[in-house]
Amino acid sequence: MTNPKQENPLDMLAEAYEKMYERASKSLNKAKEKTGSLVHEAIDEAKNKAVELEEVSHEDANKLANYLKRDLGDAMHYLAQTEREIKDWLGFETSLLEFKFLDMLLDVADRTTVGLQQFKENANHPEYHTGEITGPGTLACNECGEKLHFYKAGKIPPCPKCHATVYHRSTSEF
Known about the structure:
alpha+beta; 6 strands; about 50% helix
């Protein structure tokens, strides 16, 4: 379950998050019609594959799948509610992301191919908590507004300014 070359278990979880996202994205690209339930199914398949390959424990895989569903749901909700672009949801310029991850995010978040209504109903402004893994984007502290920028998947720390532990997605106001 652990990679001896990987010393930090948090880095391992962030890498597993990205692998699960990549697997789910590949599965969705093969589908002709993409719906909210299909996105969840693809993430669940990616979760099962990660456990099967012993990349992470069953418990960690469940957590990562929930984090992926939360992050994608939040992105879909944002795109459905606004006329903005994915870079606005991220809260920073997309050139700072790895091309591969951005490409997968855009494929999954394409408003013309995903059943956004289901995401809209299921993902109204989720909370992000210290200790969880999140994908790329900007989170703002619910207490003081301090912004944390994630340019790749990573563990959410306590707020560096006030030490609070609850965040929300911060989008750009371009």
